[in-house]
Amino acid sequence: MSITSSLQSLKLSSPFLHGSAPLARLSKPNSSFSQQPLKTPTFLPPIRAMRSMQGKVVCATNDKTVSVEVVRLAPHPKYKRRVRKKKKFQAHDPDNKFKVGDFVQLEKSRPISKTKTFIAVPIPSRNGKQGKEETGELGIPLESNQPQEQQA
Questions:
Q1: Residues 6-57 pLDDT 10s
Q2: 3-class secondary structure for 96-144?
Q3: How is 28-81 classified by DSSP, letter by letter?
């Protein structure tokens, strides 16, 4: 009889009995009840995914519209090898200044039409051959481009 009296005198005071603990406290087993969740710092900029992409113009026949092909690398679902994924986007070109083969950057904007939500912005070409036409590979002027001296 002393065992039953000692069990009755023993009170179990746990917040987990009969579902009295809120679910937010149960989600993290290692957290204490008085600890507040950590807030992210306010000085960090928000993450903006897919706001700008780079691609190559593949079609420029339409007025004020270019078709840009964007290539990205993604892992294969079965073999886990990175494969190239291509997707074509329609972009707004207000001045019709882009030709086929140009590299452009696509900036996200408001929807311009049913399929156009990007604006094409020029970027320098990847090979960087703007100033290398007159010079050789090492940046030294070629002999054929030198002025000819006349000998008397």
A1: 656 655 555 555 555 555 555 555 555 555 555 555 555 555 666 789 999 9
A2: CCCCCCCEEEEEECCCCCCCEEEEEEECCCCCCCCCCCCECCCCCECHH
A3: -TTS-SSPPPPPPPTTSPPP-TTSEEEEEEEE--STTEEEEEEEEEEE-TTT--
> Token pair for residue 72?
């990205």
Distance CA 111, CA 91 (A): 10
Torsions phi, psi of 147, nearest 5?
-70, 140
Query: Quick check: pTM over 0.70?
Result: no
Q: Which two tokens mark 71?
A: 């290539």
Contact in structure between 141 and 128 (CB atoms under 8 Å): no
Count the residues in the chain: 152
pLDDT at 26: 54
